[in-house]
């Protein structure tokens, strides 16, 4: 985040008080198939987010907001409602762009929160004209590029928080969160991350915002500090059991250090990344090349995730945790991230269906969300066969898979990817600002 001092005086041009989601009624359109042909362009009920034909030919789900008279079609239940009500898992949406009213049909379909990251905003802002008007005003007002970027982001986060506020209130702060990440440039800066988190929390100024902090070694102490300040945190980029345990300890340490008599409003999720683990481990297994190694492809990620849930159950029990519960503390829920399938040979719900369990969150991008709504089955699966998960984890170790290396490598790749997205977006905004100035002259 460039210069915190420079950004500390940020005062968003667009006030969320002018945002009125009630002025819109949701309409859903499916626009293009994989072959570029229109497969479905009829107005449909907000709850009907799936195609009737073969899901392999699905197109992009475009959710649009139209001003319609009346209350629209009644909401129909989806498996997302069952996921939460029957198994205690909160389905979130891993995407955010303007207009945020695009989220209304998804909320009606059972989505209970939103996650964002620098890559998501890079795509949203650089490929859409929806940000142009606000950006033009910011440039004309003399804002530097990075300050302008954060104002664009803050507006989206505030508006999304408004949409999810009813869920937050209904669950007494248990759900309905919108996540926004500190600058990826701070992934190795403990103090800078704390200052950025404090600033973001203050400027967004919404009870249901999660400040995302990466689980790098340098930022684990930041997590403790930010939690101790009473700021709710989404810890992101967790790829290993060892780092996950350090994240849990940072949360517990932060709660204990807060000095608050009521801990009920300080919450957290730990974003444990899934599919990317298989992407890396599969390559390592293919290099080994034995039948045993090849048979373990596509199994590493979910096995490690099952063991993470076992660790979660262990850490959030016992005398230490019970002492915090007496002060109103809530468990730091496991959040399954990176749930889209990278290998087309795998089931499109591979990183959703086997990871269902109470007190967890599954954040899904479009592809995974559509697939699960269309043909996902709801049942508790995360701890249905822990012994098998332990066997897979051990078998991979015996083959020479170093879980420590896997976690470190994926963390490096994740941080680097977000930095590149962040830098690319700032570059594109600079180009856009230059063009706006040329036009204005």
TrEMBL record:
SUPFAM superfamilies: Aldolase
Catalytic activity entry: D-sedoheptulose 7-phosphate + D-glyceraldehyde 3-phosphate = D-erythrose 4-phosphate + beta-D-fructose 6-phosphate
Pathway: Carbohydrate degradation; pentose phosphate pathway
GO biological process per UniProt: carbohydrate metabolic process; pentose-phosphate shunt
InterPro entries registered for this protein in UniProt: Aldolase_TIM, TAL/FSA, Transaldolase_2, Transaldolase_AS
GO molecular function: transaldolase activity
Keywords attached to this entry: Cytoplasm, Pentose shunt, Schiff base, Transferase
Pfam families linked: TAL_FSA
One cellular-component annotation, GO: cytoplasm
Hydrolase recorded as keyword: no
Highest taxon in the source lineage: Eukaryota
Location in the cell: Cytoplasm
Presence of the UniProt keyword Transferase in the record: yes
Listed transmembrane segments: none
Entry's family note: Belongs to the transaldolase family. Type 2 subfamily.
Function (record text): Transaldolase is important for the balance of metabolites in the pentose-phosphate pathway.
Family annotation (PANTHER family): TRANSALDOLASE
Name the record gives this protein: Transaldolase
Protein source organism: Rhododendron griersonianum
Taxonomy of the source species: Eukaryota, Viridiplantae, Streptophyta, Embryophyta, Tracheophyta
């Amino acid at each position: 985040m460039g210069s915190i001092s420079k950004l500390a005086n940020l005062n968003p041009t667009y006030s969320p008080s002018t945002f009125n989601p009630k002025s819109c009624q949701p309409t859903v359109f499916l626009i293009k198939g994989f072959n570029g042909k229109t497969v479905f362009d009829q107005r449909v009920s907000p709850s009907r987010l799936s195609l009737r034909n073969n899901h392999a030919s699905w197109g992009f789900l475009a959710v649009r907001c139209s001003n319609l008279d009346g209350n629209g079609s009644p909401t129909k239940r989806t498996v997302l409602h069952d996921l939460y009500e029957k198994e205690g898992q909160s389905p979130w949406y891993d995407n955010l762009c303007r207009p945020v009213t695009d989220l209304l049909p998804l909320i009606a379909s059972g989505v209970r929160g939103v996650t964002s990251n620098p890559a998501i905003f890079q795509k949203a802002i650089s490929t859409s004209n929806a940000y142009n008007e606000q950006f033009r005003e910011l440039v004309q007002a003399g804002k530097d590029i990075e300050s302008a970027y954060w104002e664009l982001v803050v507006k989206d986060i505030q508006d999304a928080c408004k949409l999810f506020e009813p869920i937050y209130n209904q669950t007494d702060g248990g759900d309905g969160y919108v996540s926004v990440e500190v600058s990826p440039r701070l992934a190795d800066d403990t103090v800078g991350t704390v200052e950025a988190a404090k600033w973001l929390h203050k400027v967004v100024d919404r009870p249901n915002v999660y400040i995302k902090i990466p689980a790098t070694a340098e930022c684990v102490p930041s997590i403790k500090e930010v939690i101790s300040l009473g700021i709710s945190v989404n810890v992101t980029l967790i790829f290993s059991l060892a780092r996950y345990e350090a994240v849990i300890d940072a949360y517990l340490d932060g709660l204990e250090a807060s000095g608050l008599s009521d801990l009920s409003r300080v919450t957290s999720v730990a974003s444990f990344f899934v599919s990317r683990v298989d992407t890396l481990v599969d390559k390592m297994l293919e290099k080994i090349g034995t039948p045993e190694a090849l048979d373990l492809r596509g199994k590493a990620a979910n096995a490690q995730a099952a063991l993470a849930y076992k660790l979660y159950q262990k850490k959030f029990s016992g005398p230490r945790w019970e002492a915090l519960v007496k002060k109103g503390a809530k468990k730091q829920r496991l959040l399954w991230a990176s749930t889209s399938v990278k290998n087309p040979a795998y089931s499109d719900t591979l990183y959703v269906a086997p990871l269902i369990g109470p007190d967890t969150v599954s954040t899904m991008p479009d592809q995974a969300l559509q697939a699960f709504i269309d043909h996902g089955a709801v049942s508790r699966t995360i701890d249905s066969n822990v012994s098998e998960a332990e066997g897979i984890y051990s078998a991979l170790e015996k083959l020479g898979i170093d879980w420590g290396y896997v976690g470190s490598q994926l963390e490096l790749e994740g941080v680097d990817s977000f930095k590149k997205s962040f830098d690319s977006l700032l570059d594109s905004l600079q180009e856009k600002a230059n063009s706006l100035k040329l036009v204005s002259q």
